[in-house]
Amino acid sequence: MKNTVVALVYDFDETLSTTYMQDYVLIPELGMSPKTFWKKANAWSVENCADQITGSMYYFMKTAKEKGVRLTRDNFQYCGTLVQYYAGVEEWFERINAYGKKLGLKIEHYIISSGYEEILCGTSICKYIKGMYGCSYAFGEDGTPVWPARVVNYSTKVQYLSKINKGLGKLDDRAVNEYMDDTKRRIPFSRIIYFGDGMTDIPSMKMVKNRNGNAIAVYKPKSAHREKAIHLLKDDRVNFALPADYSEGKSIDIVVKTILDKIAMESNLEELKKKEELKKK
What local confidence, expressed as pLDDT, does residue 211 receive? Predict the structure, then answer.
């Protein structure tokens, strides 16, 4: 079967990038270290009984106003240009697309992140991404944020994953909860590979794994993060725990290509079965 669609779905922070996307430029622009900012933002969220991610979005707005920093779309996109990636990430997309094409597979890449879409739009890998689902701001007449337009946490990540599975648009909130027969879903979970690293990814990774897809927990090479990823593997929440190196010939490259080989063979087998069924008519 040709052009069978396969979705590679990624978290972003510490999955593709080496740290949180706000840490490279945005927080230093506010005259703070990432450690200090996140500590204060999380404390504000606790004090106000706010969702941690929503709270941090507000705290960025609050702090920028106090510091006289304009958080415009252009400013956010500039922050995206200075994101640093794990080894091999920037070459990964073209290489894996070409590999899939040889197998008769159409590879689509998606990002579901608790980071900011405005920053993601400025990244060098944005051009490879079919769909981006991240936190986003609503902007006022002066071009600065006035309200969190969209918040992505562990539960909404599952919703966006379901939208990819069903072939729905970003704003199809009602349809995502409606019943759809598995045979009508655009990308079955068996053809989804999910990459994540942290707590907000666990429900999505578990969902993909339980529905015959593949979930990969990545961790910063030569770091204590390895134990966290191995723990997810031991808890049966992921299929693989691999170092975050996307270079050719490394573990992620080998595992993903092997999964794609399997998907291609299964697709070809299904095509052969359909031909045999036609003989019965």
Answer: 96
Q: Which residue has the tokens 């191995």?
A: 230
Name 70's bridge partners. Answer: none
- pTM value > 0.90: yes
Rounded Cα–Cα distance for residues 237 and 240 (Å)? 9
Domain containing 179 equals: 4-18+86-139+150-279
Domain assignment present for 59: no
Take residue 209 and report the two structure tokens written for it. Answer: 């794994």
What are the tens digits of pLDDT across the range 5-52?
A: 999 999 999 999 999 999 999 999 999 999 999 999 999 999 999 999
Backbone angles phi, psi at 45, to 5 degrees: -60, -45
Q: How many domains does the chain have?
A: 1
Instruction: Give the CA-trace dihedral at 260, 212, 195, 203, to 10 degrees.
Output: 170
Confidence tier at 274 by pLDDT (50, 70, 90): confident
The total of other beta-carbon atoms located within 10 Å of residue 65's CB is 13
Largest CA distance in the chain: 74
Distance CA 81, CA 263 (A): 34
DSSP 242: E
Judge contact between 97 and 136, C-beta under 8 A: no
**What are 124-175's pLDDT values in tens digits?**
999 999 999 999 999 999 999 999 999 999 889 999 999 999 999 988 888 8
What integer pLDDT is reported at residue 2 of this predicted model? 66
Q: Is residue 44 part of a domain?
A: no
Asked if residue 174 is part of any domain, the answer here is yes
For residue 80, being part of any structural domain is answered with: no
Residue 206 maps to which CATH number? Answer: 3.40.50.1000
